[in-house]
Amino acid sequence: MAKAKDNTILISGHAKFPVASVARSQFDICTITIEAEIDTWKIVFVDCVLITDTAKNFISNIVSKQILDSAGLQAMAEEIEYRYHGYAKKTLLSALLDLEINLENTKKYIRDQNR
Predict the structure, then answer these.
(1) CATH class of the domain at 8-110
(2) pTM for this one?
(3) Between residues 21 and 54, the one the model is more confident about
(4) 5 falls in which pLDDT band (50, 70, 90)?
(5) Where are the domains of the chain?
(6) What is the number of H-type helices and E-type strands within the chain?
């Protein structure tokens, strides 16, 4: 496993899988976890709790090409809305919303620590 850079943070968003989702048989919660550089908010690693590697890689590819900011999160949501057609679509979008809240709290924490 690669060592995290000293200038990165780990942030995640969570949402419950729908009952009809196959993933619900193994997981209750979908988590999108992102490692990003603090100075540029460039995403360096993405992980996602989904049932298949194909789905995880698909979401990782969508997320990893964005910058971790409001515009990047909006672009991720739009791309997932358009391209992802599984039972977990609403769950993924909800996890991104949760991630956006966590991101704002994290940015505030970092600003406060640097005062």
Answers:
(1) alpha beta
(2) 0.87
(3) 54
(4) low
(5) 8-110
(6) 3, 3
